[in-house]
Design a protein that fits this description.
Blueprint lengths: L1 H8 L5 E5 L5 E6 L3 E6 L4 E7 L27 E2 L23 E8 L5 E7 L3 H6 L4 E9 L3 E9 L5 E3 L1 E3 L2 E3 L6 E4 L5 E4 L5 E4 L10 E6 L5 E5 L4 E8 L3 E6 L1 H8 L11 E8 L5 E3 L4 E12 L1
Antiparallel strand pairs: 1-2, 2-3, 3-4, 5-11, 6-7, 7-8, 8-9, 9-22, 10-21, 11-20, 12-20, 13-17, 14-15, 14-16, 16-19, 17-18, 18-22, 19-20
């Protein structure tokens, strides 16, 4: 399969495909501006590092164990077509099925600035249709360069409207969780999933001294991760998203997960996710499209 993909979609000196030890296909992008790895299972961007940065911006756990049908710890999982638990079916996977099923490459190319572009489409199957019977296409376009741009497009090709929840559940590489803050959400309301799912208001920047799991609602604002240890800022800009999730598991929950990168991998990541969930789920009318777009940029300070 990797050979066929290289023949059809590979770009000399920029984009190639390989099969890893688990049998999954990984696209490797390396151009003059940045590099990234993307697993075709789940259309899962695993890592991104602009050439201007000494360490990656998108974090991948050193203890993750890629496997067929299993999610990858780190990177930018695609949560679709629902976020969190399914509304009615407890047996359906949390955050939807998109992150653990095959996607197929439908296009690749080079942007005018030299960035590498690739588009993948979720491959429908009996398994996915049993959980989501609506006629639609889900495409993810990834553009890797000095910035990282991702576009998650949902096209309703059927005759009836449907509702989706979604997220680009991105893990960012940081120096130390206790030495960062996140700005851009000041004054906003959020559902506090650690504090009993209460609705609260954000006072000042978000800082971290314990587990945080918050869904900020009605916000399309750009967020900035201020990292004192790595001396950089990561900008998280988005459109087509009105929720932002901020998450860190902290030590007790991380230890239960087993794949966070022991003993202190949890200290080196934070999730700032571009989402449509809870109050902000999206109705996609018949014959229309909805696109969630994110762009990440890192700057040294």
């Amino acid at each position: 399969m990797a050979t066929a993909l290289n023949s059809q979609f590979g770009i000399k000196g920029q984009l190639s495909f390989r099969e890893d030890a688990s049998g999954l296909i990984v696209a490797e992008i390396d151009n003059a501006l940045g590099r990234a790895w993307l697993c075709l299972q789940g259309a899962h961007l695993m890592m991104w590092q602009p050439k201007s940065q000494a360490v990656p911006v998108v974090w991948l756990s050193r203890d993750t164990k890629p496997a067929v049908g299993k999610s990858i710890r780190g990177g930018a999982p695609v949560c679709w077509p629902w976020f969190g638990a399914h509304a009615t079916e407890t047996s359906f996977p949390g955050h939807g099925f998109a992150r653990t099923v095959p996607w197929r490459v439908i296009e690749s190319g080079i942007e005018p600035d030299g960035a590498t572009r690739m588009t993948l489409r979720l491959a429908a199957s009996e398994k996915t249709l049993a959980q989501w019977s609506h006629e639609c296409n889900a495409d993810l376009t990834v553009i890797v360069g000095e910035t990282l741009r991702m576009e998650l497009k949902t096209e309703n090709t059927g005759a009836t409207d449907f509702v989706i929840g979604e997220a680009l559940h991105t893990y960012f590489q940081i120096g130390d969780i206790e030495q960062i803050s996140v700005t851009g959400l000041e004054g906003g309301e959020y559902w506090d999933k650690v504090g009993g799912s209460n609705l609260r208001r954000q006072d000042g920047a978000v800082s971290f001294s314990g587990e945080v799991d918050r869904v900020y609602i009605n916000s399309g604002a750009e967020c900035v991760i201020h990292d004192d240890k790595l001396k950089r800022r990561i900008h998280v800009a988005k459109s087509g998203s009105l929720s932002t999730v901020v998450w860190t598991p902290w030590v007790e929950k991380a230890n239960k997960m087993g794949d966070m990168g022991q003993p202190d991998g949890w200290r080196e990541m934070v999730c700032v996710e571009s989402v449509n969930a809870i109050d902000n789920v999206v109705t996609v009318a018949a014959g229309t499209c909805h696109t969630l777009i994110v762009e990440y940029r890192a700057e040294s300070v």
